[in-house]
Amino acid sequence: MKRFIGFVTKEFYHIFRDKRSMFILFGMPIAQIMLFGFAITNEINNVNIAILDKSKDTKTQKIINKISASKYFYIEQEISSEYQIESIFKKGKVKAVLVFENHFVKNLQTQKQAKVQVITDATDPNIANTITNYVNAILQNHTQEINNTNQPAYQIQTQTQLYYNPELKSVFTFVPGVMTVILMLVSAMMTSISITREKELGTMEVLLVSPLNPLQVILGKVFPYIFLSIINATVIVVLGVFVFGMPIEGSILLLAFESILFIITALSLGILISTLSNSQQTAMMISLMGLMLPVIILSGFIFPLSSMPLPLQVISNIIPAKWFIIIIKAIMLKGASIEIIWKETLILIGMTLFFIVLSIKKYKIRLE
């Protein structure tokens, strides 16, 4: 019995001395419960909206102030014309526009009813539905307040209009999101084991004595996987269009360019993981555990980023998948051109260059 207790004690010591085991046992569960607890929510908070107030009277201003005071909406801007609605939707920052009709107060007084149009960006059907429900709730609450002092009762009616996805098909969110997740995880995973495989197989010496510099080695590792990932992306888009009816409103060439750029970004990240890992198992674990949760949760694929705590919103900016989802939705559903998505494109280019430069630096250190 003493031998068994001594053996168990030894195993405890081994576990406590292994930092990776301690991280997996205690660090990962804490990180996951915190991430899921804060990120997974069906509510919306601080969603950017725009206001088109055609009436411009005290009652509409009171309603606008009530909407602005709620935690659900943030009034990003006030517009003066309906022609501005599509342009601000294409930029992707505003998710809904509230339009107050002409003679809002007069209609309330004479007809005992007035109308508010709720126009939503329905590229994400769940968010569009939630926005409409929240606006309706706020207007109903306001109507009840004013009806306490008015007889007969006033009525504020809402009219809903959906942009880009009028049928609220969830597949319009599903296809871009799945395409992003697959390209990110598969591309990073494929390249993350490339250099570590060389180390484990003992063929690193061949690279050490070769005339290739670190940049050529890294580009040589990435280049074949670009074509394989392009095939993956093509298959996903073709299935999305011909099987699920996914539209491509924008330029196919621009979509292809942005997809290749994201593939290169993911492959570069995989190479960086490869240069930082000592074994294929470690590289695989980092690729799966370190990328899967952030890509799915912090990219805006499933859960709205605006509803997350500020620290998670800040962290989401370093997730390449977030920017690609914005790009691909803008091209496929909104017909956006490069003038609309140039900022997101530059961010992906910057990330790619950063991963490549850091990979070269780490590769040189390992060669010395």
UniProtKB/TrEMBL annotation:
The chain crosses the membrane at residues 21-40, 171-195, 222-246, 252-273, 285-304, 310-328, 340-360. One of its GO terms (cellular component) is ATP-binding cassette (ABC) transporter complex. It comes from the Bacteria. GO terms for molecular function: ABC-type transporter activity. Signal peptide: none annotated. InterPro entries: ABC-2_transporter_component, ABC2_TM, ABC2_TM_bact-type, ABC_2_transport. Residues 116-366 form the ABC transmembrane type-2 domain. Keywords: Cell membrane, Membrane, Transmembrane, Transmembrane helix, Transport. It is a multi-pass membrane protein. Belongs to the ABC-2 integral membrane protein family. PANTHER family: MEMBRANE COMPONENT OF ABC TRANSPORTER YHHJ-RELATED, MULTIDRUG ABC TRANSPORTER PERMEASE YBHS-RELATED. This is Transport permease protein. It comes from Flavobacterium frigoris.
